[in-house]
Amino acid sequence: MSRSIKMPVCGWLFLPAVLLLLIPAALTAEMPGKKGDEPAQKQASPKVITLEEGIADDVTLPFVPAKPRSKTEQKKIDSAAWYMTGRMREARNDFVGAYEAYKLAMEDNPNSLEIYRVLIRLASGLDKTDEAIQYAQKAVELDPGDYELMRKLGLHMAGQGRFEEAVNFLEKASESPAIDKKSGVYVIIKHDQANLYERLGKKEEAAQCWEVVFKALTKPDDYTFEFNTRAQLEAKQGKLFERIGQSFLETDRLKLAVEAFNKAAESQKGRPGILKYHLAQVYYRSKQYQQALDSLQSYFDEQLQSKGRKAYEFLGEILVALNQSDELIPRLEKLAEKDKYNRTLHYYLAEQYGEAGRFDDAEKTYKASIGESSDIEGLAGLLRLYEKNQKYEQLITTLSEIVQSGEGIRKIQPDLQRMSEDKKLVNALVAEAQKQKKKDPPGVDVFSAFIIAKLAAEAGDNKAAGEFYEYAIDAAGKHAKPQIRGNWTLLILQEYSTLLREEGKYGELSDLLRKAVENPLLAPQRINLMSFLADALERNGETEAALKVNEEARQAAPRFPMLDYQHAWIYYHAHDWDNAIEQIQSFMKKYPQQQDRIYEVKMMLSNSYVQKGDIAKGEKVLEEMLAEDPSSPSINNDLGYLYADQGKNLEKAEKMIRIALKSEPDNMAYLDSMGWVLFKLKKYEEAVGYLEKASKLPGGGDSTILDHLADCYHKLNKNEQAAELWKKALEAARKATPPDTKLIDQIQQKLSQ
C-alpha cells in the first residue's frame, strides 16, 4: 500500500489557500480567433471506431490554430497546462507530482511570481529547503515590495544559521516602500533585526532597531498593531524592556537605558532591586561609581539571585574603580552571613578566599555550602581549589564524588581537558593514586580510578592508564551494587579496549575480553563481546582460536550477518585465500540485501583473487563494481592501483586514482596509489611528493608505502635514503600479523643488490 506525502498545514512560507483557486493571467492560454467563413476540413479517410471510443463519439483531432503560434505564446500555453496539471495532482494529494509539474510550468514561464509562490510552499512542505530558498529569492527579485516574503525568508535563513544573509533580507523587508512604518509588522521586523544584529555582535545597529521597538511598546497608540502581534510583544515585555535597556546601556544611550529599565521594573512588580541593579550599571557607565555601589547594594539587600554570579563580579568591578578592592571579601562575607542559602554567593566568596591564599576558609566555605547535595558547581570549585594548592589526595576524592553525581563528568569536561594537558599534574595525580590504592581501605575507588586512567591516557601515559583501567575494572567487579558491577565494568572495558587496540596490544586485549565474555553481569552483551574477542584473537595471530570463538557466536546468533561477515574476514586477514573466497561467496548468497556489507566483501573478494595470483578475476570483480558505481572513490582507487601494479592502463589508472584522491586528499591509501602510478609512469619527482605525504600520516609506517617511497628514492639516485626505508619496510613487514612473506622476499632482494 503506497503512502502519500502529507503537506503541513502551515509551511514556513505558506501561501493563502485562495491562490490555488486562481489561474494567474500570465499563465492563461489565449485561444486563437475563430474564422466562421472558412469551410470545414474534409477527412481523408472514413472514421474507424476503436474499443476506446463510444459508438456516438467523434474522433478527437489535434487542435490546429489558424495562425501559427509564436514560441512565446506556445510556452505560455505549455506553462498554463503544467500549472493546471500541478493543481490537479495537488488536489489528489500527489504533492511530489504536483511539485514536478509546477517546476515545468516555471521553466516555460520563469517570470511568473504566482508559480514561484506555489513552488516555495511545496518545496518547504517536501523538505526541499535549499530549493525553497532559491525560489523565494527569485520571487523577491520579481517583487521587491513583498516584505512579508522577505521577512519569512530572512527568518528561515536565520534558522539555518545563515545570519548575515538573514539580516540582509530583513533589512530589505523593513526598507520596502510598501511597508507601513507605523504597522505592527514593521515593529516585529525591527525586533527580528535587533536579535540578529546582537548575534552578529553589531551592537549599534541592534540598538537602532530596539529604539523602534521601544517606542512602539511605550506609545502603542501611535502604531496599528494586530491583536496577535501586540500580544506577542506584551507577553514578554518585562524581559524585553530589560534586554532593550541593556542594549541602550552598551551603546551609551544612557537616558533611554534608564527609561527602559524603569519600564522593566514596572513590568516586574514588587522587585525594585532589579531596577536598582540596572541603574547601578548606568551609574557605572557614566563613572558615578559611588552611586553605582549604593544602587547595587539595594539589589543585594533584597537577597535577589536572578543576576547570579554577574552581580558579585560587578561588585568587584565597582570596588576596583573606587580603589577599594580590599573591601570585596568583607562585603561578600556580610552578604553571605545574611543570605545563608545563596550557593552562588557562597561559592564566589570561597573562590575569592582561594585567590587570596586563604585555603582553609575556601575549603570550609565550599564544603558548608555543598553539604550533602553533591552540587556540581561547588564540587568543581573545590576541585580547582585542590588542584591549585596541590592537594592531590583530596582532589582524587572530589573526582570520585563528581563522577558519581551523574552529569558531573560532562560538566567538568573543560577542567578535565585542562588537567590532561598538564603532564606534571597528571604525573602527581598518578603517583598519589598509586599510594592511595595500597591503603586499607583503598583511597581510590572505581570512579576516581576511571578518571585517572582517562587523564593518563589523554596525557600519553598509556602504562599508567592501563594500570588504573585494570584497577577500575577490578574495583567495579567487587562493588556492592550490581549496576556498578555491570554497567561500569562495561564502560571501563570499552575505554580500555580502545586504548589497547590503539597500541596494537591484541594479546592483552584478548585476555581482557575473555574475562568479559565469562562475566555473567555482561551476559546481554555476550555476542558482541565474542565478536570483539574473535577480532582481537585474529589480529594477534591466533586464527584457530578466532574461528572457534566466531563459530560459537554464530551458533548462538545464527541470523546475525555481522558474524558471518567476520567469519569470512578472519580467513581473509589470515591470508587463507581459498577459504576467504568460499566464505565471501557464501555471504553474498545468504545476504544479498546487505548492500553495504556486499560492497565490502566484494572488495575483499577482488583482493583475495589478486593475492592468490588470479589477477584477471580480481580485476573483473572491480570492473563490474565500477560499472555499477563509476564515481566510487574506493573502487576507482583499488582498480587504478591494480592496473598500476601491473604496469598497464597507466593513464586511465592515474585518472581513476585522482577521482579517489579528490574526494579525500589526505587519505593515506589514495596518496600511496597516486605515488605508485606516477612511479610506473616514471614521474619519480612527482611520485615522491605523494608518497612522502602518505608516509607522514598516522599509519604511514606501512611496509608497502615505505617500500614504494624507497623505490622512488632509488630511481632518483638517493640510495642511502632508499636503503634506510627498505630496512624500515622490512621490519614493518615482519611485524605484520600475519607477515607478508612475498613482500619480505622482495625487500630482501632489493637490499641485497
Automatic annotation (TrEMBL):
TPR repeats lie at residues 79-112, 113-146. Keywords: TPR repeat. It holds the Pfam family TPR_19. Gene3D superfamilies: Tetratricopeptide repeat domain. SUPFAM superfamilies: TPR-like. PANTHER family: CELL DIVISION CYCLE 16,23,27, CELL DIVISION CYCLE PROTEIN 27 HOMOLOG. This is Tetratricopeptide repeat protein. It comes from Gimesia chilikensis.
